[in-house]
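Propose amino acids for all 383 sites.
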């Protein structure tokens, strides 16, 4: 019997089952259930749960502050907005009591309808406009100057001067207003000192003429030009718009500059202390004069601080109230009347809470628009 020869390996391979043409699966080098970052899936899920728990705890701690803001800010603002659409005297509930829904009538009376209300509001806007034009630059420059002085390393007693400059900002505005009221009386200290130099001091709180009108009068222009007198805007003639701040308003401006410059000084001081000393020393080594270092090094690096101070000053200038209430109450001849004080007198003095609320929301819109414009002009532009 002949023996069957053994099969070759090639024959065995051909006779066996067909092999797959797909490439072999490469090992990932990590056990199953492990993420690409090398962490197990159960650890990732555990961290997600811990993060969710931290978020819940964070909201729990923030809930009291959020509740206070909603209850004492958002809800009253919403109620005031509703009141601005009503004719309501404040003697009953604005939701269930005796009131009349007038829609936008309070706003139209304020802005477009000729009458006493429109003239008073436009007068307050004019007064505040001159207040802003004078107060914002003055308080910015003065507070910046004070910050530069108390930031000098060679100055002895820097802490003392910082306290002295900041002290008016924490003093009662009522007490300071009464003090200034006595200082600027007709026979007060200021006029007495002016008399020593042969200057006849003005009647600070009784002269209703504006500074621009006084300048025209000094130049011999006692009567206004016809086109300024005959044309009006918002119920006021163009001559009234160009009157300038009254003497009484200038007194209030001087008071508020003195009381707020110390607070803004701290903002500038914080910015100055953040400037690296090495930069100033390098500029000094390069031969830059003190003015050149201030103009080319300090000012550019203080851009954000200046923007912050100007923004806060612009917002605060449209909200001046307590100094007007204590010192002048809008007199003389409404040359110190401001929108905030007008809103107060219309609401609590005349019982027209709808009109007062409308004044407040128009004032809010003015502040927002001016702040947006100011921020746009002071934005950082790419080189």
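Proposal:
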């Amino acid at each position: 019997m002949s023996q069957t020869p053994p099969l070759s390996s090639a024959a065995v391979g051909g006779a066996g089952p067909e092999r797959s043409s797909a490439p072999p699966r490469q090992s990932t080098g990590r056990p199953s259930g492990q993420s690409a970052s090398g962490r197990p899936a159960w650890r990732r899920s555990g961290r997600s749960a811990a993060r969710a728990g931290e978020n819940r705890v964070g909201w729990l701690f923030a809930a009291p502050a959020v509740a206070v803001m909603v209850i004492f800010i958002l809800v009253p603002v919403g109620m005031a907005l509703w009141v601005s659409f009503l004719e309501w005297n404040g003697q009953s509930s604005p939701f269930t009591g005796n009131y009349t829904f007038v829609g936008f009538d309070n706003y139209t009376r304020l802005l477009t309808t000729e009458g006493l209300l429109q003239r008073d509001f436009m007068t307050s806007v004019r007064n505040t406009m001159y207040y802003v034009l004078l107060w914002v630059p003055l308080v910015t420059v003065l507070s910046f100057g004070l910050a530069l002085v108390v930031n000098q390393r060679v100055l002895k007693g820097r802490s003392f001067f910082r306290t002295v400059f900041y002290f008016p900002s924490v003093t009662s505005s009522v007490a300071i207003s009464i003090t200034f009221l006595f200082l600027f009386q007709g026979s007060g200290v200021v006029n007495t000192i002016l008399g020593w130099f042969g200057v006849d001091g003005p009647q600070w709180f009784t002269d209703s003429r504006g500074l621009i009108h006084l300048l025209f009068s000094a130049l011999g222009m006692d009567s206004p030009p016809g086109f300024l007198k005959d044309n009006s805007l918002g119920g006021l003639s163009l001559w009234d718009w160009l009157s300038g701040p009254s003497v009484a308003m200038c007194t209030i401006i001087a008071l508020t500059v003195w009381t707020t410059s110390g607070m803004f000084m701290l903002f500038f001081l914080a910015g100055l202390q953040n400037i690296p000393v090495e930069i100033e020393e390098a500029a000094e080594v390069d031969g830059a004069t003190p003015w050149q270092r201030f103009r080319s090094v300090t000012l550019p690096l203080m851009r954000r601080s200046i923007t912050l101070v100007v923004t806060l000053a612009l917002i605060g200038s449209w909200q001046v109230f307590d100094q007007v209430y204590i010192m002048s109450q809008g007199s003389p001849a409404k040359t110190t009347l401001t929108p905030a004080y007008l809103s107060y007198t219309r609401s609590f003095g005349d019982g027209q809470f709808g009109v007062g609320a409308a004044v407040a929301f128009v004032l809010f819109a003015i502040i927002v628009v001016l702040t947006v414009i100011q921020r746009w002009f002071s934005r950082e532009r790419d080189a």
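The domain at 105-210+245-377 is CATH 1.10.3720.10 (MetI-like fold). The first strand starts at residue 86 and ends at 87.
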